[in-house]
Amino acid sequence: MLTKQQIRYCLDEMAKMFPDAHCELVHRNPFELLIAVVLSAQCTDALVNKVTKRLFEKYRTPHDYMAVPLEELEQDIRSIGLYRNKARNIQKLCAMLMDKYNGEVPRDRDELMKLPGVGRKTANVVVSVAFGVPAIAVDTHVERVSKRLGFCRWDDSVLEVEKTLMNIIPKEEWSITHHRMIFFGRYHCKAQSPQCPSCPLLPLCREGKKRMRKREEKAANQK
């Protein structure tokens, strides 16, 4: 586990690397963001944006999603993984938005999590990005970066990772740090090919140092 000073250094370096980090899901309002985040589960933001470019012109309100047969909505998002399940959840959450929330996206995380297909990560993204509520959404990138750097333990659950990050990061930095960690994991500390040799955090990164040692050993054995 890193010290507070080391964690501060990591956060500051990520801020230097990705000063303009932001939510890359294209949306015009909280409702479109909610739909986009639901679609993004186990899917890239780039593919979601490609699909929602057409989707958000056809469907503007919760009522619009309810006005078509489920099969039609499935076809509209067919290129996205788990599209059948996501289409069902979208229609169910739209029905709940109309029945319980007057068609508006709730601003409270616990209320958002009552919606079909909306888990803690999705709710955290929505409250943070759409409503400016401090939150840390732990997606695959945030979890990977946190564990590689030693912000938390390898066997920590997603919820434990979130709680740890909330404890070690100042609350006013939760939302922006979430985006910076996503960018760091998506474009630098990648799952399959992390850019360890050029990483400014390598001296503190337990995973990176292991990778570099193995690379050096492999190179030595090939001589």
From TrEMBL:
Q: Report if keyword Iron is assigned.
A: yes
Please tell me whether the keyword Flavoprotein is annotated for this protein: no
In the record, which residues are listed under signal peptide? none
Give the cofactor note text.
Binds 1 [4Fe-4S] cluster.
Q: What are its cofactors?
A: [4Fe-4S] cluster
Which Pfam families does the entry link to? HHH (PF00633), HhH-GPD (PF00730)
Reaction(s) catalysed by this chain, per the record, are: 2'-deoxyribonucleotide-(2'-deoxyribose 5'-phosphate)-2'-deoxyribonucleotide-DNA = a 3'-end 2'-deoxyribonucleotide-(2,3-dehydro-2,3-deoxyribose 5'-phosphate)-DNA + a 5'-end 5'-phospho-2'-deoxyribonucleoside-DNA + H(+)
| EC number(s) stated in the UniProt entry for this protein | 4.2.99.18
Lineage top rank: taxon: Bacteria
Q: Locate the residues binding [4Fe-4S] cluster.
A: 189, 196, 199, 205
Annotated InterPro entries: DNA_glycosylase (IPR011257), Endonuclease-III-like_CS2 (IPR004036), HhH-GPD_domain (IPR003265), HhH_base_excis_C (IPR023170), HhH_motif (IPR000445), Nth (IPR005759)
Q: Record's family?
A: Belongs to the Nth/MutY family.
| NCBIfam families assigned | nth
The protein in question is named Endonuclease III
- Per the UniProt record, the source organism is Geobacillus thermocatenulatus
Q: Which gene encodes it?
A: nth
